[in-house]
Structures are given as structure tokens and as C-alpha cells.
Amino acid sequence: MDARTESIERWAERLRLAESQREPIEPLRDEIGADPDGRLAYAIQQANVAHAVAQGRRVVGRKIGLTSPAVQRQLGVDQPDFGTLFADMLYGDGEEVPIARTLQPKVEAEVALVLERDLPAADTTLVELIGATAYVLPAIEIVDSRIERWNIRFTDTVADNASSGLVVLGGVPTKLTGLDLKLCAMTMQRGEETVSGGSGAACLGHPLNAALWLARKLAALGQPLRAGDLVLTGALGPMVAVAAGDRFEARVDGVGSVRARFSTA
To answer: CA nearest 111: which of 239, 215, 207?
Structure first.
């Protein structure tokens, strides 16, 4: 094993230990150094994906992060990032989510796509993406960070599986036909209080823009999206911090509603 590979494995293990021991770690970016294209950060992420698969976890899709231009400017990047979704990360509408599975959880409402066809081309078109989408679901992504106090930059979040945590999915699928995801309004409430709002336009101008970026990116990397994959397209509004016992409901016009219910301990 060469020095570069040893470093990647060491950083990946630190992130795994942060999760298993429930102790966030200091940012990795200074130690990793210059990584303008994210190559090292994605190698760290992939090392942990490979480790998870070796432990029996099953990959079921991808998530897209950094879809807000404001967040991109904050982190000094000009493109989104992506992470991997595993089967054991998914919860159903209203199902209790164990707060102990998280470290520093925050929630954001999103539109999720489910594919019925592969997207193998690095120049995938919007027409092909629409044709490959079986249906959409409302989703609440529970983003999380193994980096203490969410003190992240691009390198940190990419290495940390795009700050992935858990996902709660609505249970009523909706076809894309006649659905304008750009204009769909989102409102999220914690109890009776409205805590977040936005629309599809907040997600790279349109949630399908984000999904198209992902399809092309993964195909170029030789890891194309496949039939059956779940794709989280990115936040429709600001994320909100979570406390034990919190209950959230997100409504996306035309797409439906989804509830996330956190355990008290």
C-alpha cells in the first residue's frame, strides 16, 4: 500500500470511528491539503462505501448536495457534490427515527426520483432522464456531519459522504407527467411552526437539473445510475436543526407530504 492509499484509508477510518463512537472529529481539509477537484475527498468517501458494502450494507441510490448557489459560494465551489445511500438509511412516512443514529442532525425537504431505466451515458440528456424516471416521492433528508460543529468546507463534506445521514420517504408515488418541479412550493413545519420554505427553483434552478448533473457525473466515473436507484435531488429550502422528540412535516405541491418523527432518546 502506497503512502497516498494509506492516508486515504486513515482519513476514512477516522470518519467511521466518529460515527460509531458518536464523537465528531476536527475538519479534515487542512490535513488533506489542496484538492480542488475533490479527487482525494471522493476517494475517502469511496473507501468508506467499499467498507460498508463489505460489511453487508446495500447501496440503493445517491444523494445530491450543495445544490444551493448560496451554499456553493459559502464553500467556495461551483458545482454540487454527491453521496451514497444505503438501504438501512431509509425510513417510511411517520416511522420513528432513532435519534441515537445521528450525531448533529438537521432536516431538509427534497424531491426524490426513482428510476426505472439505467442512465449509462456521460452525455445523458434531459429527455433520457425524464424517460428513465418511474416516479417521484416527497422526502425529508436527515443530513448529518461527522465533522464537529458542522465546520465544513467542500473537502470535508465530500469525504463525509456528502454529509449524509438518514432519509424519510413519503409513500405515495407521483408521475412526472404534467408536474412542474421548478414551480412546486415546499413548506416544512415542526409541530405547528413553519420552519422552512422554498420551491423547486432553489435546487439548481430545477430538481431535474441536479439529477441530470448527477447522471452525467456518475456515468463519466464509470458508476452510472441504474434502474431502481433512488436519487435525492437536493434541498428545496433551508435546513433545520433537530432535537430529540421533534416531529416534522414537509409538503411539496403536486408531490405530496412526508412526516419525520424522532425518538425522545
So the answer is: 207
CB 262 within 8 A of CB 246: yes
Q: Which of 111, 64, 112 is nearest to 84 (CA)?
A: 64
Cell of 59: 447501496
Q: Which three cell numbers stand for residue 18?
A: 466518529
* SS3 assignment, position 48: helix
pLDDT tens, position by position, 81-124: 999 999 999 999 999 999 999 999 999 999 999 999 999 999 99
Distance CA(132)–CA(102), nearest Å, equals: 33
Buried b (16+ CB within 10 A) or exposed e, 5-28: eebbbebbebbbebbeeeebbebb
Furthest-apart CA atoms within the chain: distance in Å: 55
Helix (H, G, I), strand (E, B) or coil at 102: coil
pLDDT at 223 over 90: yes
Q: What is the mean pLDDT of residues 5-24?
A: 96
| Distance from C-alpha of 166 to C-alpha of 187, rounded to nearest angstrom | 20
pLDDT tens digit string along 233-243? 999 999 999 99
How many Å apart are CA 221 and CA 62, to the nearest integer? Answer: 14
